[in-house]
Amino acid sequence: MKSIVCIALVCSLVSMARATPGTATFYRQYTPSACYGNTPEGVMIAAASDPLWNNGAICGKMFTVKCTGATNPVPHPCYDGKEVRVKIVDHCPGCGGTLDLSQEAFAAIANPVAGVIKIDYW
């Protein structure tokens, strides 16, 4: 049993060491998208900000995203320990965040009333 706990702890620490900090917002209209046009890609999706976009090279990349804190007066927006896995399907030029999550993805990790949250993603 100690081995399993130790392995889980090491995996968590490795994931956190690879995480990149950023911010996330959310959006509601998923098609058309810059990567897939009018083809729906589900609801656990995200749009990449200009620094990540790289002329669309990021299309289809999967990220795990975790809320780490508030960026505004909404107290404690994060749902403790929750993570969401999203697929990059769109570009969000001039976005206020690093990732613009679908409303469903955002709501899986934080209270949507917050609007903008601090995140770690990997």
From TrEMBL:
<dbReference type="GO" id="GO:0048046">
    <property type="term" value="C:apoplast"/>
</dbReference>
<dbReference type="GO" id="GO:0009627">
    <property type="term" value="P:systemic acquired resistance"/>
</dbReference>
<feature type="signal peptide">
    <location>
        <begin position="1"/>
        <end position="19"/>
    </location>
</feature>
<keyword id="KW-0964">Secreted</keyword>
<keyword id="KW-0732">Signal</keyword>
<dbReference type="InterPro" id="IPR044206">
    <property type="entry name" value="EGC1/2"/>
</dbReference>
<protein>
    <recommendedName>
        <fullName>Expansin-like EG45 domain-containing protein</fullName>
    </recommendedName>
</protein>
<feature type="domain" description="Expansin-like EG45">
    <location>
        <begin position="22"/>
        <end position="122"/>
    </location>
</feature>
<dbReference type="Pfam" id="PF03330">
    <property type="entry name" value="DPBB_1"/>
</dbReference>
<dbReference type="InterPro" id="IPR009009">
    <property type="entry name" value="RlpA-like_DPBB"/>
</dbReference>
<dbReference type="InterPro" id="IPR007112">
    <property type="entry name" value="Expansin/allergen_DPBB_dom"/>
</dbReference>
<dbReference type="InterPro" id="IPR036908">
    <property type="entry name" value="RlpA-like_sf"/>
</dbReference>
